[in-house]
Amino acid sequence: MCIIFFKFDPRPASKNAYRLILAANRDEFYNRPSKAADFWGTNNEILSGLDQEYGKEGGSWLGINKRGKLAAITNYMEWRSNPDAQGRGFLVSNYLTENNGDSYSYLKKVSAEGHLYNGFNLLTAEFRAKQDTMCYYGNRGSTEPVHLKPGIYGLSNSLLDTPWKKLHQGKRHFTDVVSNLSLSCDGLVQELLGVLNNEELNGPDPVQELQGDGYSASMIKALTAVCVRTPHYGTRTNTVILIDAEGNVNFTERTMLNCDTTKWSTNSFQFKLHS
């Protein structure tokens, strides 16, 4: 399970505004091996965490490169999955390493192979000097990708903006934070980390329960929180990405250490997109 809130504003009204504000949680088994976010790839131009699970090494859940390409993925909540399906994390890594092709064309290609994967939602974006683009495709929804209009969105483990209670509450909190224009960059990051670490339960939620048919009642209950907590599974990475009007990127990752929910490390990266 994961959750992503983002505000897409390709033509911000002022130089102090942001073309993208994104706040995301990665939920996973605490003991699944992975690398914290860092630069990698040709000329170290890609910034992301990386999966190190056997057979899925090199996949990712969220990343950006210095050429302005960004991708993020969430799994689709479904009880039965195919253990032989292709690794979904490569959909993120492949987009970030691809030299040619735009975000929509990439999703169009992915949609033709969507049946090879377990359920997923994939966001792809390009932040360019002349035009910003964000697109979405979910292989349990429409067969066609869509271009996203400017606005505020929420994505969890159903289709984009499915009205789960946790998504509604988190999106409302996110909207309140990003509407506060008096916040500094650091202040905005801290407030968004607060959004991501809200452990309040938002159940019962009949819509989420219907999709999660087959899950235990205790697991369904735990999954109604924006920040998920169970003894062995839950939120283990928070990521905030800000892209301002001038192409400056602020990437902050807070990640769990040693499978211990009381121990965390926070790292921030700043760079300017290539024009």
Describe this structure in words.
The protein has helices at residues 90-97, 103-112, 165-178, 185-196, 206-211, 217-222, and strands at residues 2-8, 18-29, 34-40, 46-51, 62-65, 69-75, 120-127, 132-138, 146-147, 151-155, 233-244, 248-257, 260-272. It contains 6 helices and 13 strands. The termini are far apart. It has 275 residues and is α+β, with helices and mostly antiparallel strands. InterPro entries: TANGO2. It comes from Mugilogobius chulae (yellowstripe goby). This is Transport and golgi organization 2 homolog.
What descriptors fit this protein?
alpha+beta, Penicillin V Acylase, Chain A, seven-stranded antiparallel sheet, six-stranded antiparallel sheet, 13 strands
Tally of strands: 13
The assigned structural class equals: alpha+beta
CATH topology: Penicillin V Acylase, Chain A
Report the principal-axis shape: globular
Protein name: Transport and golgi organization 2 homolog
InterPro entries: TANGO2
Pfam families: TANGO2
Question: Can I get a quick summary?
Answer:
With 275 residues, the protein is an alpha+beta fold. It is built from six helices and 13 strands. Strands 3-4-5-6-7-8-9 form a seven-stranded antiparallel β-sheet, covered by helices on one side.
